[in-house]
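Students often ask what a holo structure prediction actually looks like on paper. The answer is less mysterious than it sounds. You provide the chain, you provide the ligand, and the output is a string of discrete structure tokens encoding the 3D arrangement of the protein together with zinc ion.
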Amino acid sequence: MNADMKTLRCNCCGNELPSDTIKFVVEVRSFADFDGYLEEYEGDIEDGVNSLLDNIDEMEDDGFDADEASRDSIYILCKKCRDNFLSDPFQIGSMAFDAENRKGTLH
Ligand SMILES: [Zn+2]
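The corresponding structure tokens follow.
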């Protein structure tokens, strides 16, 4: 085993992810949906996204900031965090749980 090899860490909990551990790559893609463009698009949603991104490219020439309109983020997660993320991407459940806990400690 090469000790110099950089150890990957889970982007969520920070736990080390040794090379013999299963890692999960979560790709988050967000882009602006101009005026409900995608909802009105008739046909393959993938085609709709592509022409939307083409439009963004054209708008970029006009000074539109494409970075603001479209953003891809890639995270490497351990299995536990991947499962947590997929079951509750915005951690709404755990926030509610925290609020419950705090209430419980107040009396
Ligand atoms: Zn993790």
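The chain has one domain: 20-106.
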